[in-house]
Amino acid sequence: MSKESGHIFEAKLRASGMKQAEFAVAMGVSAQTVVNWAKRGVSKGELIRAAKLLGCEPQELDAEYVDPIQTLKVNYQPLKPSAGSRAHQELRETFARYVAELSEADAAAVSQIIKGLGEKSAS
């Protein structure tokens, strides 16, 4: 929880048209709890319910959320052809194991990112 998360929560609450007191009743928490959320952000245990009530995704309320797909995009560097063949093979095998553990939707998203990055490096 952070001050920035609190500002995000306040903005989402304002956009919803609800007052803090109304939100507290709808969430089943005290008015003071909602005041605290406006200062420090919604507690992790209440993010999902609060987001649903505000009509947003839970990660939108958490300023500290890091999108793993975006991180992959930023940190991706294509393999250099000069990389040793054994190191290259080990990296491919490790990545294949990682992708195999992903959900089908996440694996498809990673595949799309890699295709897009490959197109970037080719141009």
Description:
Pfam families: HTH_3 (PF01381). One of its GO terms (molecular function) is DNA binding. Residues 17-61 form the HTH cro/C1-type domain. This is HTH cro/C1-type domain-containing protein. The structure is a single chain. The chain is mainly α and 123 residues long. The chain folds into 2 domains: 3-61, lambda repressor-like DNA-binding domains (434 Repressor (Amino-terminal Domain), Orthogonal Bundle), CATH 1.10.260.40; 68-122, no CATH class. It is built from 7 helices and no strands. The protein has helices at residues 3-16, 20-27, 31-40, 47-54, 68-75, 85-100, 104-122. α2 (20-27) crosses α3 (31-40). It starts with a helix and ends with a helix.
